[in-house]
Amino acid sequence: MRSPLVIVPACTAQHGAHPDYAVQMKYVDAILQGAACLPLILPALGERIDWDALLSAVDGVMLTGSPSNVHPSHFGQTVRNPALPLDPARDETNLPLVRAALERGLPLFAICRGMQEVNVALGGSLHQAVQENPGFNDHREGRGLSLEEQYGPAHAVTLIEGGLMAQVLGGVTRISVNSLHGQGIDRLAPGLRVEAVAEDGLVEAYSVESAPGFALAVQWHPEWRLTDNPVSMKLYAAFGAACRQYQLQKKGGAHADL
């Protein structure tokens, strides 16, 4: 049996004179090392993508983090800080990708910006600047710090008893995570179940209630130093197992149609 294929959507970027479609290597490596699947980088092509053709060929989707934010027009707001980066082409690709993937029952793992994309795609909203809302902490990484310091443990999150994440992690109730985001969940979309919260009450993880298999989103970065973090390895292993199960079910369905 072939390795399950996992879509990893790209951001748009500009390096030198020519624009790029880009994915950070740590996300690609995490699919290989943690999920034991084969990553398939998807350019941010928006409406030019034939979703049926693409999704019929893959076994999972992982949405990455990014320096850019989801454009607030997608959740009924105007831009609060024009200095922050946006990526309209990624929005136009990933928001319909989320809906199409969930409709097919594909396993889904969403990280940081990816978590925010799923919530917006399904009708939720975001805080554009979590730190400016009373009662919330500043969840952004420290400027001027090394990558090791920025991605180091920042705060604890409490897992919801009986949730998907608690089950995947063997019933633990509290873990320590990194924190590198300015936007965060405001109104949770219908059909999403909270899986973990930060000490200030911000939603740090949720699952999709109607999903037949693994459909989980986290606000932190489990892909960072993946193999050194047992919690992150368990999350990626569970995602990879779900992709293999989806592949088997798809193969069985194809045989049944013959």
What portion of residues belong to β-strands?
A: 15-25%
Number of strands: 13
Q: Average pLDDT value?
A: 95
The biggest beta sheet is recorded as: 9 strands, mixed
Looking at this protein, list some descriptive labels.
258 residues; alpha/beta; two-stranded antiparallel sheet; globular
Written account of the structure:
This protein has 258 residues and is an alpha/beta fold. The chain has a 9-stranded mixed β-sheet with strand order 4-1-5-6-13-12-11-8-9, with helices on both faces. The chain has a two-stranded antiparallel sheet with strand order 2-3. It has a two-stranded antiparallel ribbon with strand order 7-10. Helix 3 packs across helix 4 (113-121). The protein has helices at 25-33, 51-55, 88-104, 113-121, 147-150, 164-168, 230-257, and strands spanning 5-9, 11-15, 18-22, 38-42, 60-63, 108-111, 126-127, 155-159, 174-177, 184-185, 192-198, 203-208, 215-218. The chain is globular.
Give the helices and strands, then pairings.
Blueprint: E1 5-9, E2 11-15, E3 18-22, H1 25-33, E4 38-42, H2 51-55, E5 60-63, H3 88-104, E6 108-111, H4 113-121, E7 126-127, H5 147-150, E8 155-159, H6 164-168, E9 174-177, E10 184-185, E11 192-198, E12 203-208, E13 215-218, H7 230-257
Parallel strand pairs: 1-4, 1-5, 5-6, 6-13
Antiparallel strand pairs: 2-3, 7-10, 8-9, 8-11, 11-12, 12-13
Helix pairs in contact: 3-4
